[in-house]
């Protein structure tokens, strides 16, 4: 049963609002065994909306439209649907009273303008809105069943779960199971990961394997489909094992698992602690780690030593090292890491010093040059090392990726893996 999602609104096509509704709906439809053939977004234009509805209805068995059900002149989904169906709008008396009651329940009188929300195309039916004023609409256009919901997420969620999902289930008949998962990795580019996956990414396979990139993380997405739910689960399990084996130690978790969560889990399991001394990342590493609930058992604290004087005063970096090698150097980040290790009493310490930009770069040390240090204890012996990362992007991107590089290096160390797996932080 192919489905199409259509989102309405100038605020979406202008980029003023991110369309989270489509992502949520696609996930819910997928859980029902229904794939989305297309996601479309159109502005508040009556003729364009009507034409798009006609096109979508010719291609899909289910069309879900969100947005454009408000009471103002730019809310055009109702008349556009009526135009696509070739019928007039009619008023639903029961909906009028529902809207009136919504306002009266809040001690207000219903504005006459809101009466338009009780209109719908002839032959269609209304879907009650238990969270707001705008009812939804259910209509048939050719072989396609059309469902229209408000764009307000809470109202859409409730309407979908209460009325639309059961209707779609009854239409679907025998269900097909579609399972999705993603394996996240950090430290290598998308093309490198794709090369490692090889034939696993062939588009004629089931499960289907693909890659996406977001905030420097390369995620391998897997989609498994079968008429039998147990078979779909078995195929998904097997493929994820294969993907993880191909990607290697840079893969750190499934779905919404974060890099910092895996680091905290490893530290906790090994009864180890960490401290930080940060320059260019300005506390991002410590912030990411302490975002994880329960991280207090593993994170002792840290220093933001942005100025050179603070590096010397707070974590004991020799001023001679800064003068001789510069703040952005192996020698300085190693001294920062050792200082944090000793002054905190932690088992591990991470440090960063770099040039995040937009200015400050030189020919030898361009913007994006970041040194990442790590110190650790093995019994009574202290060890320290550093990696050089050359990162691209704007200031925020460089800082974010620097922090993730540090976390991934610590994770690899905790796992007993070689730090050479990291493509973005190499020996220099």
Rg calc: 28 Å
The total strand number stands at 17
Helix content: 25-40%
Low-confidence segments: none
The percent range for strand residues is 25-35%
In spatial order, strands of the major sheet run 2-1-3-8-7-6
N-to-C span: 55 Å
| Average pLDDT for all residues | 95
Largest sheet: 6 strands, mixed
Supply the CATH superfamily name of the largest domain: MoaB/Mog-like domain
Shape: elongated
CATH architecture of the largest domain: 3-Layer(aba) Sandwich
Number of domains: 3
What is the helix tally?
Answer: 14
* CATH fold name of the largest domain: Molybdenum Cofactor Biosythetic Enzyme, Chain A
What is the name of the CATH class of the largest domain? Alpha Beta
Alpha-beta classification: alpha/beta
List the helices and strands and how they pair.
Layout: E1 3-8, H1 10-13, H2 20-31, E2 36-42, H3 46-59, E3 62-66, H4 77-85, E4 89-91, H5 93-104, E5 119-121, E6 125-127, E7 136-141, E8 144-149, H6 153-172, E9 177-185, H7 190-197, E10 208-214, E11 217-226, H8 229-247, E12 251-254, H9 259-269, E13 274-278, H10 284-290, E14 299-304, H11 308-315, H12 319-325, H13 330-344, E15 348-354, E16 369-378, E17 381-390, H14 395-415
Parallel strand pairs: 1-2, 1-3, 3-8, 13-14, 13-15
Antiparallel strand pairs: 4-5, 6-7, 7-8, 9-11, 9-12, 10-11, 15-16, 16-17
Helix pairs in contact: 3-4, 9-14
